[in-house]
Amino acid sequence: MPNPLKDIWKAPQALLSPVGGLGDKLKVLGLNLSTRGSADPDETESQPYNSTVSFLKEYGFSDKMVESFFVPFFRGVFLERDLKTSAELFRFLYSQFAKGDVVVPENGMQEIPKQIAADFEEHQVKLGKRVARIDGRTVQLEDGEAIEADRIVVATDATTADKLLGVDSETSFNKTECMYFVSDTSLDLDGDPYLIINSNENEIIDHIFPASAVVPGYAPRGKTLISVNIVGDKQYDEETVRSELKEWFGTKHSWKHLRTYAIPEALPQYLGSTPSNGEYQVNDFTYRCGDYMAYPSLNAAMKTGRKVAEMLAA
After folding, report:
1. Choices 3.90.320.10, 3.50.50.60, 3.30.70.100, 3.40.50.970: CATH for 110-172+271-313
2. pLDDT by residue (tens digit) across 260-310?
3. pTM value?
4. Beta carbons within 10 angstroms of residue 114's beta carbon
C-alpha cells in the first residue's frame, strides 16, 4: 500500500488499495503520525514487554489487515513468524519505513565494509584470519600468530563474542534461509519493484526480492536475479520452491537455482532491553559491540561500533 505521507499524489492509490478496509487505512495514517520521531529502542526507558502483534490488535487494526499485511511484511524484517518481537522495536522501525526509503548499495552489501576499510592502510587489516582466543592484551590467531594490543574491540556476532570473552550474553536468534535463482526472462512487475510478500501460510516462500529489477547491475544483461526468503523451520525442497515461483510468475521463466544460504543466527531475538544492553566495556582494555548489544539491525551494529570508538577516543 503506497504511503501518502511520503508522496501526496499517491493518496488516492492508497485509499483504493485492496489491502485492508478504509478504517485500517485511516489507522495506518494515524500510526504513521504517532510513530514519527520514535527513538532508537536502546535510547528509551524500558517498557513492559508487549509483542508487535498484540500492539497492532490493541491499536485497532482488523485481523485481516494484521494477517494479510503486517505479519507477512514484518516477518521479513524480524525473521520470525509470529511477530512476538517487542512492539518497542516495531514502532521505531515502522517510523523509519514511513519517512525514509529502503535501499541497497548499487554494488552490493560488500561496499559497506569496503567503505569502512578504505581509511586504513593495507597492512592494518588482516583478512581470512580467525581468532582462537584472547589472553589479556594478546589476540591469539588460529594460525599461531599473536597480536599484542593496548585496546581490544570484539566486533563479532554474539556467539563468537561470548566464546572469546568467556561470557554468556543470553542471546537467542531468529533463523532464515535465502535462495538465489536466475532466469533468462525479465519480470513483469506492476509498480515499483521492491519486496514481494506472501500472506499464504500454506506456501513455502515468505518473500521474494527482485534484486536485478531494483538494481540492474546485480545480474548480467538479459538475466533476472531474485532472492527467495524462507523464515523459520519450514520443511521444503528446491522443486517445491521452483513450483511456487512458476505459480507466481508463470511458466515462461525457467528458474535456475544458484545457491542457498542457511542462516541459523540471522538476527538476535528482541523482546525488549537485552541483558548486555549498553555494557560495551568488558574490562580496562577490552570492549565489545554488535547489534545484540542494542537491537537487531545493521543500524544498531554500526551505532554500537561508533559508541565504542567514541569511548576509545575520549
Report:
1. 3.50.50.60
2. 999 999 999 998 865 455 689 999 999 999 999 999 998 899 999 999 999
3. 0.85
4. 12
